[in-house]
Write a structure and sequence with these properties.
- This protein is α/β, with parallel strands linked by helices.
- It has helices at residues 49-54, 79-94, 109-120, 137-142, 150-163, 181-188, 194-197, 224-232, 246-250, 253-268, 343-347; strands at residues 9-12, 20-27, 58-63, 98-107, 125-131, 143-144, 147-148, 212-216, 237-241, 280-284, 289-293, 302-309, 322-325, 335-339, 353-356, 364-378, 384-392, 398-407, 439-452, 457-463, 484-489, 497-502.
- 19% of the residues lie in helices and 28% in strands.
- Strands 12, 13, 14, 15, 16, 17, 18, 19, 20, 21 and 22 form an 11-stranded mixed beta sheet that branches. A 9-stranded mixed beta sheet has the order 1-3-2-4-5-8-9-10-11, sandwiched between helices.
- Helix 2 (79-94) packs across helix 3 (109-120).
Length: 529
């Protein structure tokens, strides 16, 4: 590298001579791991190298600086790591086995570094294929709604990184143990600012000029701002919104064929027909269908309001809960709950406050961002709002299809960057609330993709905490030092409501011939496993 340190990389090559287009991947997980069978090792996130190397691509997988044999000091996604990616791309392009064209490949960490390197515009980078990842390091990675994303960060450091053990003698112990600096750095930066700007594509997406095939699995909880990235990037682009985990998508045969068509077009100048197809492929749970769309967000979105209302003479924390109605409420009494006492209900997956529609007379498809306008007060000078959107089947079973979080002191909006269903909070200079005063909160619900079938109910749950036991990857940090009684208002003067992206049917939309049903992975077992 420019400062004299050396990165360690593995190079996988076709078994015949010549020069080839190349793929690059880089992470702190240990390059050797990416050669293991994915069926046996769940952190193989670069991709299926057997498939793409056999298609005539060289694949270079490198350890981030400071990880395993790579020299230097690792500092999560900082400018040094990004510049390393730039130099790695250009080094690959100069090698005799490369034809000068390089593409990025991989999911999660591998996806994030692709975006950041692409923003630096290395001349030899021709396209990127990011699967998942995050677009805004503050909002998508460290803090949800201004609340510390402790569930993910703790699990990522203690499970993911700690499980990536090096081969014998590959690196000293301190080179693979999870660095505490990542937790400390994010805790020391509780508000958006320069630390996160350095690691985010959000404010420099305009610098990504290479073609992008963006693949998103909503269940990974990394899709919120990535969908906004698709809108923002001004380059040839495709979007596939899939189903299941990102890892299952990564090794799906249909998806590999799609990626192969994309790479062959941009890297080998083969007319695969992929650019003649609509730019968006979408899977809709509930309908269990794949279909094409011309854009995201979908142009025909019909923004629809459902109001929080009282359910007869019972409050929203008593069965049968409150109602969600298209009609604005009249004069109604508010509902309240106590925190942290209500945490017991959260831990047992019982609603604290809940509002449901009547059984739907016809199906409703939701695709896109949503928001909850909440009129509320608290006896404390700060609190949290945690929202869940459920698809409730006639038998009472639930599927969580939407999430939202907001710390009361972080309620300030940037109106110039807000849009329907997407309130944009600054997360700078938080202001505590006045106890007992009613405030209007705009709570972002992360994009939903779901078809609520006839006979099902749409339900919104409101609480002030997550469950680390039930939602370990999404649980947030909320200190129990300040008990609170939180009150939700839903009357004509305080019309708390959900804004939902309802999608009318389109009989002209085509259906791609794809098979994305998860299947066992067929992957050769390497001799060293």
């Amino acid at each position: 590298m420019r400062d004299g340190i050396c990165l360690s990389a593995d190079i996988y090559m076709p078994d015949h001579s010549g020069s080839f287009p190349a793929l690059f991947s880089m992470s702190p997980y240990g390059k050797e791991v990416q050669g293991f069978p994915a069926a046996l090792f769940p952190h193989v996130e670069a991709g299926d190298m057997d498939y793409f190397v056999n298609k005539g691509y060289v694949w270079v997988i490198a350890d981030s600086r400071g990880r395993y044999p790579s020299e230097g000091q690792w500092n999560l996604f900082d400018k040094e790591e990004q510049q390393d990616g730039y130099e790695l791309v250009e080094w690959i392009a100069r090698q005799p086995w490369c034809d000068g064209k390089v593409a990025g490949m991989g999911m999660s960490y591998f996806a994030i570094i692709q975006y950041l390197v692409a923003a630096l515009q290395p001349p030899s980078l021709k396209t990127i294929v990011p699967i998942g990842g995050c677009f805004d390091f503050y909002r998508d990675f460290a803090y949800y709604g201004g609340l510390y994303h402790s569930g993910f960060l703790a699990r990522w450091l203690t499970v993911t990184l700690a499980r990536c053990l090096p081969p014998d003698g590959a690196a000293p112990l301190e080179k693979w143990l999870p660095p505490r600096d990542v937790i400390l750095d994010t805790l020391m930066h509780p508000h958006d600012g320069p630390y996160y700007d350095e690691r985010s594509l959000a404010n420099r997406h305009h610098r990504v000029k290479v073609p992008v095939y963006q693949i998103i699995a909503p269940s990974t909880l990394s899709h919120r701002r990535l969908l906004m990235a698709f809108e923002s990037i001004d380059a040839p682009k495709k979007l596939l919104i899939g189903t299941g985990s990102g890892w299952a998508l990564l090794y799906n045969e249909s998806l590999k064929i799609q990626i192969g068509r994309w790479l062959d077009y941009w890297m080998k100048d083969i007319q695969t027909g992929i650019m003649e197809e609509p730019p968006v492929i979408l899977y809709v749970p509930g309908k269990n269908q794949w279909r094409y769309e011309q854009n995201y967000p979908i142009d025909r979105t019909a923004w629809t309001t459902y109001y929080l209302c009282a359910g007869g003479d019972r409050g929203a924390n008593e069965a049968p809960f409150g109602l969600l109605s298209r009609d604005m409420p009249g004069e109604e009494k508010p509902d309240n709950y106590s925190w942290p006492e209500s945490q017991k209900q959260v831990e047992t997956d019982l609603p604290v406050l809940a509002f449901s529609t009547a059984p739907l007379e016809e199906e409703i498809e939701l695709v896109g961002p949503a928001s909850l306008t909440l009129y509320a007060s608290s006896s404390a000078d700060d609190t949290a709002w945690v929202v869940r959107i459920d698809d409730q089947a006639p038998d009472g079973s639930l599927a969580v299809v939407g999430f939202g979080w907001l710390k009361a002191s972080c309620r300030k909006l940037d109106e110039t960057r807000s849009a329907p269903g997407r309130p944009y909070h600054t997360y700078k200079n938080p202001t505590r609330i006045e106890p007992g005063r009613i405030y209007r909160y705009e709570i972002e619900i992360w994009p939903m993709i779901n078809c609520f079938k006839a006979g099902h109910r749409l339900r919104v749950r409101i609480a002030s905490s997550d469950s680390a036991k039930l939602d370990g990857m999404v649980s947030i940090f909320l200190s129990p030092e300040t008990p609170a009684v939180n009150t939700i208002y839903h009357d004509r003067q305080h019309p708390s409501c959900l804004l939902l992206p309802v999608i009318p049917p389109d009989t002209t939309a085509g259906k791609p011939q794809l098979d994305f049903e998860y299947k066992p992975i067929a992957h050769a077992v390497k001799s060293w496993v």
